[in-house]
Amino acid sequence: MRTRQWIQSVLLLFLGLYMLDNMLTGRIWLYINERFGWLSWIGTGILLAIGVIGVLDLLRGGREEHDHEHHEHAHAHEHGHDHGTAPSWPKLALVGLPLVMGILIPARPLGASAIGSSGVSTHFSAIQGTGSSTQLAVAPTERNVLDWVRAFNGSNNVQEFSGQQADLIGFVYRDIRFKDASQFMVARFTISCCVADATALGVIVQWPDAPRLAQDSWVHVRGKFQVQNFDSQQTPILVAETVEPTSQPEHPYLYP
Amino acid sequence: MVMDAGAVLSTFSTRFLGIFIEAVSFLLLGTIISGLIEVFVSNDDIARIMPRNPIAATIAGSMLGFVFPVCECGVVPVTRRLFQKGLPVSVGITFLLAAPVMNPIVMASTYAAFGWGPVLIGRYVISWVMAIIVGLLFSLQNRPQRIVKPDALAAIAGGSSSAAPAIRMTRAPLLPGLKRALQLAGEEFFEMGRFLIIGAFLATVMQTLVPQDALKALATNPVNSVLVMAALAFVLSVCSTVDAFLALSFARAFTTGSILTFLTFGPMVDIKSTMMYLGVFKRRTVLYMVILPLLISVLVGIWLNLNVRF
Prior knowledge:
Chain A is α/β, with parallel strands linked by helices.
């Protein structure tokens, strides 16, 4: 009983510390949309508060006595309850699972292996709608993968993108549609809530040295669009002037 | 394509932890509210506030989300606590189903995503009617112990209904009361958290095995699109506070009726909330709580697709 009470409180404390570590290192952005950062801070605070209170009580010789001092008149009936409460072993093990996974499995953002067999859409029906007017406000050279995909989507004539400059960061992705070895996709995941709703988007890049780029590696691509035939569709393809390897951004996902 | 086991494992872990981390803060807020109710709200308060008439009480229950703004993770511990405080079971079920939509946060996010229009209005009208219908159906069963698990009815305190908190006449003083609320939240976190974790695990397994692209091929058919969006809502298990933004990304491709099914069925029922319901209700009750909203929201979605031009 007492062992399980200890494990309960220590587990809550460690979950709180794990969340705190996620928040401080920025690893949290591998999991959730930036918009919910404040909520995770609240969750972290609650976990730490519950954990600390539990551990302090146990150190002082058990919460039942402690409770007793404070509200013996009002809480007499709960007294017996406090003696008898600790989560069962299976509950402890289950709640420990996220902690174990979070610590043992190296945290990585979703990458090429998370994309289904049919690949990244270049037609982006999945991402239409949201803020279709915002891409007009973003200057072409400032646009990220998501902005360009929206722009292509909202356009009736892809020829208008011919010759436009772009400057993009993303991870390298190829699937069976990429028959030309000099082509790859600079791709990003977008998430609106957490990685559960991640959708992959990408812009096709043409670069002679493309075969040297490993799947999933992060690259910084600069170049100009040219409309070409890809997978039997007229598609703007970014003809790269430079492709530089780069480190994974602090926020690996884009937020629609 | 050959995938190495390491990449598959890390993708699985990222998805699972993503759902867990996103939901756990909402669950913690729910358990804190539940702890505060236990300490500071007496059974008399509930009895005083709730109308006697079952229909009026059910309608009041559907609006309770504006008092306790919680999503589908937070609402479960709050409902469980309200049952222990003597809230009628049918009213609690209406609250449980309505609150994830009928609350100010979700109203704001739906408005931000869709603006004033058929989706916002439809979401609220349909959810409200669904929750009331299901709640009233449960009010026909007047023995709560056949609906709810015994430990959710009898107060946790004391372990038997005779020791229910009805004994308490005075409210707890503020500071010890807050501390007690935190302790209760900790206990409840283990009680409800395990269902969240099992649910997040199952949702991750489903997402790994079922390719979403296959589902999207059915987007424009008035009947299939509704069934697909109901399935997606169940599998994705996205929090109701943000599902509007997700629905928005499907809105062009999918029929409006199917978007409404997603936005009304999803907050009431998904993999992780179903697991959490099992912590409070008997298995047969949970079955009804899944099937009734499913039937209503799917039929309404299909009917709208066939009869209304948006």
